[in-house]
């Protein structure tokens, strides 16, 4: 890539998103690599209000999380088809089957043209009230 | 890369692998980036049977997990030498020393030509009976 | 990239770092991709002594972890500006607010020229005495 112009790193900040609680970006793109930060099921930001999850259920939070990931992908000119890896963080192994059901149904509706991303699902602690967090790595082009 | 043909995203599905339990790929390659999904110590798939771990011990499961990661790398034209990052998920901090012993012995036998990958090891929850999960990011070329 | 010379994978081993406890690299670079292994708050290595954390507090450990990540980035010719993703592993959800405070203050002092990296923070188990672990993915150029 010696002849290429320097790559620019761009922050991806969809208008729907709350301000990050620290000095990080919701997503960044540099060259053809796009990284989405860990997203949770927060509803679109409302000025002056604290972020609120879409609801208490895994389904509500996962669907909102997908919407939040997708908004960042689109802000960077990417789509689900460009995603290489989804990292899914759940809080309870008992949620695995339901997560898979929601996951399958969601992606069946996305009309993907490329094979689905790889995925790792592990069970961790998350802030109180949150049942799922997802981040994504995409390669465009 | 403006002159290059569009990159194709390819699913990597070794014949030894069980069908993923959801709409994700065991591995994907796009351009020179290859991502292996979280692998566990499941034995090669047997049609009509549920996936079964190679055994109850960390050693059995880790060695089978390595074999499962390697099968996906090879399906994508890569080898251990191309791996940049290994993410190792254990369930018990008490397994760290034994994991390292198994890890070292395994990679000593792989006759690597390049330096070993970076690694992060953290302790999470995994589905019942599973002691280890590993995913990998590779850069080919 | 068909006309390019084969990419070389290089291990990044800052002189400040202890020998990894297993066959992995503290960081690797191949082409314009640089991966930093999970770093913790260990002080610079002292020959013949076991690795020791910078202190018992989240602040001491986080600042030392940043220094350890940065040393690997610099060893590979990169800087914080090249970092796409920071993965922060904490052991206690109660540490989130303090981590963010330390994080913000640290990066405010780094005089970044590019937008900050994306980030995922999850709560996992870590070896006894360690409160934080961080790894990083960078894209140079």
Automatic annotation (TrEMBL), chains A, B, C:
The keyword Heme does not apply. Residues 1-23 have a biased composition (Low complexity). One of its GO terms (molecular function) is deaminase activity. One of its GO terms (cellular component) is cytosol. SUPFAM superfamilies: YjgF-like. InterPro entries: RutC-like_sf, YjgF/YER057c/UK114. Keywords: Hydrolase. It comes from the Bacteria. Residues 1-26 are annotated as: Disordered. Its EC number is 3.5.4.-. This is Endoribonuclease L-PSP. It comes from Streptomyces griseus.
């Amino acid at each position: 890539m010696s002849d290429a112009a320097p790559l620019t790193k761009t922050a991806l900040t969809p208008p729907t998103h709350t301000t990050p609680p620290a000095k990080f970006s919701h997503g960044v793109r540099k060259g053809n690599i796009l990284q989405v930060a860990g997203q949770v099921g927060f509803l679109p930001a409302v000025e002056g209000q604290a972020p609120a999850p879409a609801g208490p259920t895994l389904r509500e939070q996962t669907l909102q999380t997908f919407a939040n990931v997708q908004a960042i992908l689109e802000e960077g000119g990417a789509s689900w088809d460009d995603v290489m890896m989804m990292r899914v963080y759940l809080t309870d192994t008992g949620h695995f089957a339901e997560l898979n059901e929601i996951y399958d149904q969601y992606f069946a509706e996305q009309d993907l043209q490329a094979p689905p991303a790889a995925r790792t699902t592990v069970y961790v602690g998350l802030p109180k009230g949150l049942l799922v967090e997802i981040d994504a790595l995409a390669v465009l082009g």
